């Protein structure tokens, strides 16, 4: 149904004047109008658009309004749409009205129409239709809620009975027998069975449930005499896949149910198999239930049986946990003694109550006894920073536990290592603190690796950006109102490179670009990247600084001087083209594995175009740069140049020599 703000009305009338008049009236009243000139096209449009109301002329060529109404009310798609007849007869015969109302119409409007009457009747019936739809939806929701509540009550009752039966059962087979019977009673299915692995885990054998109908006794006997290997039959497939399986008619599908002949003989149809699994382990059992009825898949039935399977899994898990606890207590002493991590207990005042060999080795002592006798005050003798012990105690006071508490501690020989400590506070029933107990790991190697990683990260990213990245910020993208961007390129490098070996090229670029890197550091600028023989550097970010514009200019002059010095020392004739522009940019980190700090924006593009259109040995800048730095540096007007993608632009040369005071 359309929204109340924009109801959709289908107008069916063979008279074009009526269509135009009524359409304009309805549109003016805020309705969406669809028109049709015949009954046949009106039916098609109604089924396609599902209007909220239909205005239908009675007298039309072809099928008349009554037949059109009959067909609309016969279609599930349109039968609920209210229909108002339009009739040109001033005194509509009572029989026609009765006929229309019997066909399902809700009202009649006489032509020639009265605009106020049309709008009033349309509005009334649209509101009634909207209310009817709302009530219908509310009733449907209420029915669903009632059904869901009944289902939930039945499930809760069944789960309670299953839980009680499991707890009362002396062993697993008895528990299976009881729950199979209860599930069949609740679902009104006829028979259930459980398939569990034999002792060596090679095949499944059957634990039958109690019979609700003796007619399936032969099937039950066959189950007890049969076993299934992995992947064979319904139980074997579920054993392997750990997925439920529903068969609508097991008596007619031998390819899915190997005992279809016996199922047919006793009248079994639908079958549902559900695994009992503990986590990701192989299924420990398979439950299978049968019905006399041919049933399509039912989600609620499967969910209920799965819930029962979960109850059984919990029972088995509890018993396994009890056995594991017993074994754990037996192994605890050996575990502590042979643990790789250090394990300890200490007093709140700072003395060790106990320690295992791993802890004494970690701290460089001959034995746990040596450690406990030597350390009288943990905060003063063990921690490099005694305040860290105070922080440890404060954290324990707040949360009664700490995890991954890192600190530097002294070994017996005076060397220091990094440790990670996880501990908890042990208190008596009144809440009085008795002692701390925890584990300790030597993380010195990890710390060293982190420091190395930090250095590498700072070689790739500016320090403020690296800090934000390590704190988990993502994505990192910042707008800067003003930044100074420099591009430099070695002229004729391609032909020069063809005469050198790869090793010679890399060595040469490393020498030149290392000098440029030192200049960037000297002037407080950020090197962004090198691509082949090109070099990009920026000033004024990641921390805005308008003075970096002058630093960029000085670096450009020094780059030319540095390359000239390199040429004199190596008898080369390399030259640099440099372009500089300043303006707004966006800067951020791209990539998820190999991070890169990069710039975007018109300022970057212009600086790049200035470099590519510059001359060997020259530094080309925009008027923006010249206007900013004209009082500090010498500039020469080059004139207007054509920049690709930018059109005409006035350019200047930044010249070496005397800098204006």
Give your account of this protein's structure.
- The strands form four sheets. Strands 17, 18, 19, 20, 21, 22, 23 and 24 form an eight-stranded mixed beta sheet that branches. A six-stranded antiparallel beta sheet has the order 8-7-6-11-10-9, with helices on both faces. Strands 2-1-3-4-5 form a five-stranded parallel beta sheet, with helices on both faces.
- With 661 residues, it is α+β, with helices and mostly antiparallel strands.
- Helix content is 46%, strand content 25%.
Q: Give the overall average pLDDT.
A: 86
Instruction: Give me the number of helical elements.
Output: 21
Evaluate the radius of gyration.
Answer: 43 Å
Strand portion:
15-25%
Could you tell me how far the N terminus lies from the C terminus, measured between alpha carbons in angstroms?
79 Å
Class based on secondary structure composition and strand pairing: alpha+beta
Count of DSSP E strands?
A: 24
- Uncertain ranges: none
Overall shape: it is flat
What's the story with the biggest beta sheet? Answer: 8 strands, mixed
Summarize the structure.
This protein is an alpha+beta fold and 661 residues long. Strands 17, 18, 19, 20, 21, 22, 23 and 24 form an eight-stranded mixed sheet that branches. The protein has a six-stranded antiparallel sheet with strand order 8-7-6-11-10-9, with helices on both faces. Helix 2 packs parallel to helix 3.
